[in-house]
Design a protein that fits this description.
- The chain is built from eleven helices and ten strands.
- With 291 residues, the protein is α/β, with parallel strands linked by helices.
- It folds into three domains: 1-88 and 161-174 and 185-240, P-loop containing nucleotide triphosphate hydrolases (Rossmann fold), CATH 3.40.50; 96-159; 242-274, no CATH class.
- The strands form two sheets. It has a six-stranded mixed β-sheet, with helices on both faces. A four-stranded antiparallel β-sheet has the order 2-1-4-5, covered by helices on one side.
- Strand 1 and strand 2 form a beta hairpin.
- This is ABC transporter ATP-binding protein.
Length: 291
């Protein structure tokens, strides 16, 4: 397994003395879809900010693509060309007056020629369905549109890894679906995608690997397909079993479905029911199990 990011016994304290990470160790494989889950204050955002050098550990080590993180100016420039980050609040990331200017900022700072910059910006805006808004003032955009522009600005850098802090927060369901599809397209291009989330159902459905945080530590890392066997780690991170797992288990218990294959979404569970199964049997179970 080729590793993109590795944290080894990382400690971090904020300037006010609060602990952000405590002896945190985690390995994230290259070209994977990684979901980091945990309660508020567990260290998810702090961890992400260590992966592209926004924060520097007080102890321990961070490796990116097999190399120890270099915190000198040139070293950080190299890392941030490879590792892009999208913040939860887009207003923290947008600083240009117009959409095109904001998305072009990164490529221009790479010293690329004008034609290449134009091409990258056009591709990035198309990827997030914001081409028609290229000339709009940023302040006129909705929250979801601002988040798309932030993602476009990172994509224009053509990173090898993309970090997203709570990317689904504040998005309606259609935009969440579109964003998930975009992340899948990036994954298909061998981009390593790492996101933090409070949505266990989405994480279980989407991710290749699940990483659980609690009190600044990683308390569990495993393939998403192994999640049902990691209930102790889920409890340590105060995370529920996904609705799909609970629904599947309930239907297996009633003899309506076999235990295998593993089904990772409620839609897949319901679709697997025999055609003769009355919805009056399955739907109430799903309704009771929904978070």
């Amino acid at each position: 397994m080729s590793v993109m990011f590795e944290l080894q016994q990382v400690d971090y304290r904020y300037p006010d003395g609060r602990s952000g990470l405590q002896a945190c160790s985690m390995s994230l494989r290259r070209a994977g879809r990684h979901a980091i889950l945990g309660p508020n204050g567990s260290g998810k955002t702090t961890l992400l900010q260590h992966l592209n050098g926004l924060l520097r550990p007080a102890a321990g080590a961070v490796h990116v693509d097999g190399a120890l993180m270099d915190y000198r100016r040139r070293g950080l420039q190299v890392v941030r060309q490879q590792v892009g980050m999208v913040f939860q609040n887009p207003d923290r990331q947008l600083f240009s007056a117009h959409v095109y200017e904001d998305v072009s900022f990164g490529p221009l700072n790479l010293g690329l020629d004008e034609a290449t910059v134009r091409q990258r910006v056009a591709q990035a805006l198309e990827a997030v369905d914001m081409t028609a808004h290229a000339d709009r003032p940023v302040h006129e955009l909705s929250f979801g549109q601002k988040k798309r522009v932030c993602i476009a600005g990172v994509l224009a850098m053509q990173p090898r890894a993309l970090l997203l802090d709570e990317p689904m927060a504040g998005l309606d369901m259609p935009m969440q679906t579109e964003l998930a599809a975009l992340l899948d397209r990036l994954h298909a291009q061998d981009v390593t995608v790492v996101l933090s989330s409070h949505d266990m159902d989405f994480a279980y459905r989407w991710a290749d690997d699940i990483h659980l945080m609690a009190a600044g530590r990683c308390v569990g890392s495993f393939a998403a397909t192994a999640l049902p066997q990691n209930t102790d780690a889920l409890a340590a991170a105060a995370q529920p079993l996904p609705t799909a797992v609970r629904l599947h288990t309930a239907l297996v218990g009633r003899g309506l479905l076999p235990a295998h294959p593993l089904l990772r979404s409620v839609e897949d569970v319901l679709a697997a029911l025999p055609p003769s199964t009355p919805l009056t049997v399955a739907s109430p179970i799903a309704g009771k199990l929904a978070p």
